[in-house]
Amino acid sequence: MDKPQAAKEIILSLTERFQQDKSEEAGLSTRIHFKIEGHRGGEFTVRVKDREIEVKEGLHGEPLCIVKARDEVYENIEWGRENPQMALLFGKITLSNIPEILKFTAVFCSLKRFYESE
Fold first, then answer.
1. Which of 17, 20, 112, 113 has the most CB atoms in a 10 Å sphere around its CB?
2. DSSP state letters, 9-70
3. Which of 109, 112, 77 is nearest to 95 (CA)?
4. From CA 101, how far away is CA 99, in angstroms rounded?
5. Beta-bridge partners for 53
């Protein structure tokens, strides 16, 4: 399997990295909008409900969190090349609901770990 490099590919890979057991433990039910600027990004809706994940292009429904970033910033954060807290502090990424995104990210295997374990 090719490692996703573009922000769009990384977001679409969430379906592969989703950990159902962790979502059940967390009782997670959420909808996140990703607004990623740049030619490798786009707008996406990720919904987690009843231990299922759905990733769609476009913005659908009412989100509990909106993530905004440039494509290269998002890619660097996902691959561990940039510290997410520093990116947030310096306004490189904006999150409308930090507690919600923390619950959300906890139910996914990180890119590095997922692709290094293959």
1. 17
2. HHHHTHHHHB-HHHHHHHT--EEEEEEEESTT-EEEEEEEETTEEEEEES--S--SEEEEEE
3. 77
4. 6
5. 48
Give me the mean pLDDT over the 80-108 stretch: 96
In a domain, residue 2? The reply is no
Domain count, the chain: 1
Question: Could you identify the residue written with the tokens 């947030």?
Answer: 88
Q: Which tens digits make up the pLDDT trace of 42-82?
A: 999 999 999 999 999 999 999 999 999 999 999 999 999 99
Token pair recorded at residue 30: 């959420």
Gap between the Cα atoms of 48 and 43, Å rounded: 17
Structure tokens at 72: 């290269």
Residue 73 is encoded by which pair of tokens?
Answer: 């910033």
Domain interval for residue 20: 7-112
Q: Per the confidence metrics, is the pTM higher than 0.90?
A: yes
CA distance 18 to 74: 18
Counted residue by residue, the chain has a size of 118
